[in-house]
Amino acid sequence: MLKHSKLLFLLSVGAVIAITQGCGSTPPLSESCQDLTSTPFLPDFHKAPLCINPTPPTSENSIAYGVRGDPTLFMTVGERSSSAGDRGEVWIKLGGLTLKSRYRPAAPYTWSEVHDLTYTPLSFLLAGVIGRQEGMSTITQAAYVSNPIRTGNRTLQPLPGASRSEASGVNYDGTVIVGWGAPSTTGVHAVLWRKNSSGTFIIEDLGVLHDGLSSKAHDVSGNGNIVVGERTTTGGSIHAFCWVRGRTPEPMQDLPTLGGRYSHAFGVSRDGNVIVGDSTNEHGKFRAVLWRKNSSGTFVIEDLGVLHEDDNAFSSARKADSDGNVVVGMSTVEGGMMHAFRWVRGRTPEPMQDLGTLPNHTLSKAFDVTPDGNVVVGLSAIYDRVERKFEKHAFYWMDSEGMKDLNEDR
Predict the structure, then answer these.
(1) Which of 7, 138, 173, 314 is the most buried (most CB within 10 A)?
(2) What does the alpha-carbon distance between residue 127 and residue 191 come to, in Å, rounded to a whole number?
(3) Higher-confidence residue: 38 or 215?
(4) What residue ranges in 310-388 does DSSP mark as E strands?
(5) C-alpha distances in angstroms, 338 versus 208, 272, 352, 380?
């Protein structure tokens, strides 16, 4: 029998279906990957094998960015391609039942992505971006959906003069959203939208620090007072930052690195004591890292390693569970391919676990994990050398089931 809170959740997320367009199922790839070679310069995918797929995939591309819930009931958000443009996607998983729906942006916007979510019984919020083309320019607008039967989808207030913005993270109760805005007179700035007493989200510019050119916020703690992200300096370095409301003399501070010039903070635990991301070491190699707050309130960096160590090894952590003891992300494996990982503190013999890929696929990335650390979501992909592009499928992973395609009906 369903617990009362889960029944209420099903009733509330059913509102998403009421305002979005349903989607069909995605058949699995039937052909095996062939002719593996190295492709070191493919953007965003580091190194991955090229594969000839004799039968072009018929599925639509999809990616899962965020997840909340537990193994018995969880809600996942992301995007799926469409002939009319990319659409924000919502998957609701209850045992063998999967409900799927698309977030349709209001005119004049033509595409959407959902990056993060939060929910409580009878209340939820989806945060992301909508966009359109204006000649050669792409116009984007941070947007959210909150209890859509009553309020529908809404855009978030931009910075003065900004023509582009994006929402990337939302706190536990949906009162704080973080992301970035691009004013016309300056570079991109990390921003925070906080809901006031009248229910309106008010924007706050988080700045770039004294030597900064730009910044982006990626995630926010449960109470909305700690924001993490990255900033670019005038010298060209990229530094992970942690912004803490009320901290003096500067709320924004750089996080320590492994000795290199580049680092990114992508996720923060609900309690704000653990931040995850990546950093280059003294040899310029990216490694997944974790910053944990010690007794003096200082964040100390920890190298989480890689799935396979070689000259081109790479790893990056993207999100953590509620207390920071389970971390997910991606790492190269033997042969240079990228696989999703789940790192668990204290697990033996190795804390970092290779989650593999969907059948016939060659690459995967994990982007989020549920607060209890047991459900992982991301993308699994195969490179079609004929079409010269990746075919991407949103996945969820659980220890009891392994990796499953979210677009397959069960």
Answers:
(1) 314
(2) 14
(3) 215
(4) 315-320, 326-332, 338-344, 352-354, 363-369, 376-384
(5) 32, 29, 14, 10
Query: Could you tell me which residues are beta bridge partners of residue 40?
Result: none
The per-residue pLDDT for range 384-397, each reduced to its tens digit, is: 777 778 899 999 99
**Buried-exposed string 266-302: b where 16+ CB fall within 10 A, e elsewhere:** bbbbbebbbbbbbbbeeeebbbbbbbbbeeeeebebb
Residue 31 has pLDDT above 90, yes or no: no
Residue 223 pLDDT:
96
From residue 215, how far is each of 96, 190, 248, 306, 334 by CA, in Å? 42, 5, 19, 27, 34
Amino acid at 146: S
For the stretch 247-301, pLDDT in tens is: 999 999 999 999 999 999 999 999 999 999 999 999 999 999 999 999 999 999 9
Residues facing residue 181 across a β-bridge: 165, 189
- CB atoms inside a 10 Å sphere around CB 377: 28
Q: Which two tokens stand for residue 331?
A: 């790492």
CA quadruple 406, 96, 56, 52: dihedral positive or negative? positive
Question: Coil, helix or strand for 9?
Answer: helix
Instruction: Look up residue 189 and give its two tokens.
Output: 């700035």
Q: How many CB atoms lie within 10 A of CB 390?
A: 19
**For the residues of 16-83, what is the DSSP string, one character each?**
HHHHSEE----PPP-SPP-S--B-TTBTTTBS-B-B--SS---SPPEEEEEEEEETTEEEEEEEE--T
Q: What is the dihedral of CA 68, 70, 71, 73, to 10 degrees?
A: -70
pTM: 0.88
Residues linked to residue 227 through DSSP beta bridges, in sequence order: 220, 243
